[in-house]
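Progress note, sequence design subtask.
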């Protein structure tokens, strides 16, 4: 019997206002929906849920205990951490959609990761970065940090570069990037997004087989 479909959280990693991250995350989701079929034979189609760090509005890390020593959300000091823990526990894998700031990824993302440990541990992750040159440095740094909390980032990464300064400025101002399938500025990267997502599904499929 096929297992229930995996729950995949798509994390919007920018908390700026204005920002382009939500529409880029939606672009990724729209590209991979068709890739849900065919799925690995032991899986039902995955469900995709957006997790917006701006909406989570986590303060700078303020827990008294080291997260790796906590095994239940009830052990956290604060309601915001308990809520964040319960949210992350719901998912089997994650797609991080992140901008690059000054050769790194956003502080809000590092803060959100640092709040937890066991909730992340062992789960597969896909990274989609974007920036003037694709956000490769942020992508590589984030991969290291995810490995540090014992996540399993897939090998394939996605780097979305803005082809002109005008488009980069438009994104920075939260303008409509007109990310239409097959005709937008990143149409050539759609195959890479689908390839990475399929690798993510295979990683989740391997988890199911090992159970």
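Output:
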């Amino acid at each position: 019997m096929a297992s229930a479909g995996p729950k995949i959280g798509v994390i919007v990693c920018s908390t700026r206002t204005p920002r382009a991250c939500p529409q880029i995350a939606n672009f990724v989701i729209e590209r991979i929906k068709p890739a849900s079929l065919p799925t690995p034979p032991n899986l039902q189609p995955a469900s995709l849920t957006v997790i917006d760090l701006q909406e989570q509005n986590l303060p700078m890390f303020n827990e008294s205990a080291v997260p790796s020593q906590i095994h239940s959300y009830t052990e956290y000091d604060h309601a915001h951490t308990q809520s964040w823990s319960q949210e992350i526990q719901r998912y089997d894998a994650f797609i991080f959609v992140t901008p690059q700031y000054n050769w790194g990824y956003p502080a809000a993302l590092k803060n959100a990761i640092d709040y937890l440990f066991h909730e992340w541990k062992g789960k597969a992750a896909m990274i989609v970065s974007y920036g003037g040159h694709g956000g490769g440095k942020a992508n590589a740094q984030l991969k290291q940090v995810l490995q540090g909390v014992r996540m399993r980032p897939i090998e394939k990464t996605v780097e979305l570069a803005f082809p002109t300064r005008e488009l980069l400025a438009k994104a920075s101002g939260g303008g409509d990037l007109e990310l239409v399938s097959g005709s937008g500025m990143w149409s050539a990267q759609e195959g890479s997004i689908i390839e990475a997502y399929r690798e993510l599904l295979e990683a989740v499929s391997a988890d199911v087989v090992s159970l």
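The chain is about 35% helix and 15% strand. Work on this subtask will continue into the next period as scheduled.
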